[in-house]
Amino acid sequence: MAAVTVPMPAANSEASPTPASGDLPWTAAEKRLNSFVRAVALVERMGNGLGTLAFTWATVVVLGGFSTDLRQDFWYATAIVFLEAFRVFSRESRSDDQLLFKTTGGVRLKRVVLGSGVLYYLNAVIVVVCFSNALVIITNHYFPLGPNKTLALAALLALVSKLEFSTYIEGLSSSGRNIFATVFFRCIPIVALVLLAVGIVYLGDLKPANALLPLMPLFASWIVYNLLVLSLQNHEQKFVLVTKMLCTVIFPLWVAISLVVAFKTLGLLILLSTALLGNIQIPVAIARIVLSSMRLFKVNGHHKASSNEHLIPALKIFYIMVFLQGISYIMACMLETAFSFWFRRLLAKGCGLGGEPEMKSINLYYEHAYDKCMQDGILSQEDLKLVRFAVDSLSSNSRAQNLAAVRILYSLLKKTEITRNSTGLLVSEVTTSKNSVGTLISMLGWTEPEDEGIRLFAAEVIAKMAGNLRIVGIPGTVQMVSSLLDNDARASEVCINMEVPGYLSPSRIQALPVQVTGNNVLSTPKKFLQCMKNLISIPKEDEEFWMAKDSFPSQALEILEKLAHDLDNCAEISRATGLFAKIIGFMSYTIDTTNIPGTQKQLWTTSSLKLIIKLASTNGEIGMVLRQKISEQPFLLSNLAEILEDSCSNQYQLELVMGILAKLAVDMEARREIGSFQVFVTMLVNAFVGRDQPPSTRKVAGEALSMLSMGNARNFSAILEAIGPNFIDLKDMLMYEEYIYVTASLLQNVCALSQEKLSQLGSSKHLSSFLPVVFTKMMNRELKGKKLEALISLASQICKVFPQCFAQELESSQYNGLADIIQNLVATLNSSKKPSLEYPRMRRVIVEMTICILESCPRYATIFREKGMMEALSMVERTPSKVEKYRVFSGHVGVVTEGGLPLLTLVARAKELVASATPSP
């Protein structure tokens, strides 16, 4: 089981909403749907109970006790008993029950739109009309039905509903991929109508005019439809939209009225079997009602002469129970048909599921909840939860169940983010299920075309939860995520075929109609129809979201970035083979991205940069390994240089590149390789000294320059040459709090150059002018930590390079705060008994500063003694630390060693100078 970290609210904060509290967006709708399911299940279970009681009553009491006296009632009772037995035995198989008697499948409604929807509807109706009339003509011609014609038609209704003509027609329509299939599909109605007309003329003994008259409305509807499809191709989008919406209402009504007028009762039965009936629950329930009512009111007349006084009451009780059973089933079907759609739609809205494909997910949950109520009872204490259903469905062998599960989980996780509810608690509920996270991760490796939709949503779900996951206990996780980076742009088109909600490929987004406003003729009907549509529609997914995330690489990069929050996860990432090469490959604009828009390329570049800087910022030994693996990639620096030079790169991408350079530059070899790219130094210097750059950019550029200049003379020279006449501007940057550390760090590294080199570059005269600013900042007692460390180090480095300038500044009449500086140095040294990992050089730079001051002006030794420097130095001498052997730490691991004299040697020299008897000025 995957480990998960769940953020808990603070003790004094307001209670966060939890799934149990009912505050989540879908909880109320979920409870309403569950209550409705229990109500429908109660009605059906009542019918089942009546059926079982009637079956027992018939077999034990009626057939067992009065078999010789029943006469015709014997056959009616036997038929009813066989119907009930058929229902009981079918309940033993879930698939048989759903196919034959399940209430939730008793009625199905077809949603028809102009396009393949109307064509499917017309073809299905016409084919069923022809088949049904052919059966009626044949039976009337060769096997006259006589008085049992009504029962025969009812049997015909049940037969047609189970032959699933509509399913075959619908499948044929969806499989039409070429011109031949399309033409064949469109010609089905004409062929069927012609054959039916011929059959009516030759077998029905009717005149051709009378035979063709009932078929003319259907033939006309087919002609009008095809003319509309051809004519609308050249009209404006707005007119086409309104026409489609009107035809969605007109065509089904026209076909329904034509059927009833032309074929009367048979037409109505055909309409029901084509559009409404999903199984034989309603026909069998009608049969129960008809059979029981036919005998219920004739029992007294048929059995007056019977000597058994209990026969008539027994038969009445039996027929009443059968009658009520049929009524119960019809009530359950009608209740389910009339209201389940609205409850399911409300739950879909609450979950943020958009579009018809997502309704299939809610329908599966609805079926699951209904099955649980039928199996466990309506009073079962087990909670029906959408999240639990989704988690359990992950392990299903059905692809439909798997797709529904990941769709639901993605929508719920996204909904909690939008409403700012506790995503952590929802993630916890998912991960507490055995193997649920492992199953989701394994779905990332499902590369078959029919599994692309499942894979897409599984990646999105993992991306939502990755920030709370630890993958140590799930082997192969990084490899599965890495496999997402292998997909190309074709994955987007596959996702369309898998009915990804709201997803539009870039080509389809460009083809979206432009919304036009105006007071033209079509405005009013369109507004009315749009209002009606909004009443029952589900909100669509954000198309821009899917456009920006229309590839598996985007998801993989996001997952890896979020997983990098944990050191153990980073260790797993560092061991992945070939992963870093794939990630860095997405930084380049030159990769093969045919048919991928520029926004997608920008997203890939930004995501890969964010991931690399996240990994490069990892602390500890794992961070060292990650930085080494990143630095070893041959195309890393060239890709980063390409981004810096590209005019299309945005400011955020430039800052990410500079941040990556700063993180990698902690390694000496990496500093050398980065410095060999002149573009890096130039771009970093321009960003650092550029007054038009935002503070965040200048800060990260200064950090990168500071790291590059550390212990590398070649980089020193390149940076100074790039700064050139702008060197004096660095003094102004020391004035600003946000730039003190990076500027002082860069300058102290620059001071490591020889005085001759600085003089050649014209920087020596400017550098000495920095001392007043540095001393002023050092007197600020509020300045602490690494900023103060950098300023003290800068002052001591200036003293080493320009001792005369340093001494002159100390002697200058313009400056009288030396005692305050010394006091601040002693206080800081006393408070640094235990060196800090954030600024490990604090004690060293204070000792170096003491040495510089006393070597330049020995007379100040008395002030140092008076301020307690001797005792502070003795404390440093007694408490050496390995921390001070490093200049930079990554977590608890030193990554840049200290190159100067040992600290104890410096302390001895400082004590010697402080103890000197030179009088103070």
UniProtKB/TrEMBL annotation:
It comes from the Eukaryota. The keyword Ribosomal protein does not apply. Keywords: Membrane, Transmembrane, Transmembrane helix. Signal peptide: none annotated. Residues 1-23 are annotated as: Disordered. Gene3D superfamilies: Leucine-rich Repeat Variant. The chain crosses the membrane at residues 48-68, 118-138, 150-171, 183-203, 209-229, 241-263, 269-291, 317-343. SUPFAM superfamilies: ARM repeat (SSF48371). This is Uncharacterized protein.
